[in-house]
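Subgroup meeting minutes
Present: P.N., E.W., G.H.
Scribe: E.W.

1. P.N. recapped why we're keeping a running log of single-chain structure predictions: easier to compare across weeks, and new members can see raw inputs and outputs side by side.
2. G.H. added today's entry (155 aa).
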Amino acid sequence: MSGAKKKLSDYNDRCVRIVMDDGVVFEGACQWLPHEYNDHEFGVDIEGLQLSNWIVYADQIVRIEEIGPDNPFSGPYGTMETENLADGPDSVEEELSSEETVNVFRMLRCLSERLEPAVLHSPAWAGVVKQLRALVRYDDDDAVREAASRLLQSQ
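Output recorded in log:
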C-alpha cells in the first residue's frame, strides 16, 4: 500500500501538522471525528480532526503530515497555543487539562514566553493557576511538572 493516499482517519491518535486553506498551520496530537459525529454535534456533515479544543474539517485542509522524531514540530509552540492564549484563561485551562502531554507542554512553553507574570497572578487567571498547581503535584512527566512550577514561581 506504499504511495497510497492516507485517509483522514489514518491520522487518528497521531501528532500532525495541518496546513489550512487560509494558510494557518496547526500542530499537535489529533483525534479523527467522522462526518456523522460532526453532523450530530456541530451540524457540519464533514469529517475532521480535533486538535485539543480546535476542529479542522476536511474541506479546510490543504496539506497534512504526520510529525514525530524524524519530522518534529516547527517550534516550541505554535498557532494552536497562541490562539488559546489570545482567547483567554478558559482556553488555556482547557489546553492544560489535555490528556496529551505534548499539548500541555507546548502550552506551558507559550505561557512562559508570552504571558506577563502579573496577568497570570490576576484573579481572572485563578483557574489556570489551580491547573498549574495540579500539574506540579500530579503530572507524570518531569518536564511538565518543572515548567508548571517555573510559571507559578514567576513574579
